[in-house]
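Example 240, ligand (2R)-3-sulfolactic acid.
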Amino acid sequence: MKIFVYHTPALVPAVGNPDCAIAIDVLRATTSIATALASGAEAIEVFADLEALEQASAQYPAELTLKAAERGGSKVSGYDLGNSPFEYSEEVVKGKRIFMTTTNGTRALQRVKDVPHVVAGALVNLQSVVNFLHDLDPAVVWIVCAGWEGNFALEDTVCAGAILAHLQKLRNLAFGNDEAIAALALYQQSHNQLEELLRYASHGQRLARLGATADLTYCAGLNSLYVLPKQSAPGVLTAG
Ligand code: 3SL
């Protein structure tokens, strides 16, 4: 298995044929997606922009639908949900299809939607992702970090490194690029201080300024959920 890590969706090569892609947005989109599916949501459908979300959600029965939108860390006014994992409780999301757009995370998922196998990864569901890769044994994997508005984000890269570190315990891996080696080194250096790293990261500081410090603790919770958000149709994630 050969694994490439990309720090942002823009760094993903225009051509290439991976067998599998893992999209990561630890703060907070893929953490919230994992939480929603663990809480019994029927599916999460992801969109890069509000217009596409509105068009698609209008085709779906309103009583089975929730619309989630985040920009700049805050809920977009008029939407049912923002992007805090605490909003995705069983009472709120069970049986619902969630139409979601976020600043970076849903765009990372959109970027890889044509790859044969797509999964959303976060620290909270790390082992599920590792087990999935070990069982599937794809020849080429892209780990695509959401980053923040085109820039590197520590929390996503450390999660990429965590996947590599834990997968390496199960099998031999080939590193496809230097970013993969750097991600592994970041995780090896900081695996005992994941919450501190998230608080230190620029987006962690942005969320703290918005009052979302409990989210940082939650998003740093390694393996707190056993759920695999897996693409079942382009842009649609269900519990695999
Ligand atoms: O960038 C994103 O997609 C979000 O996860 C950002 S936030 O954590 O909701 O601010």
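Summary: The pocket of (2R)-3-sulfolactic acid is lined by residues 25, 27-29, 70, 73, 83, 102-105, 146, 207 (CB under 6 Å).
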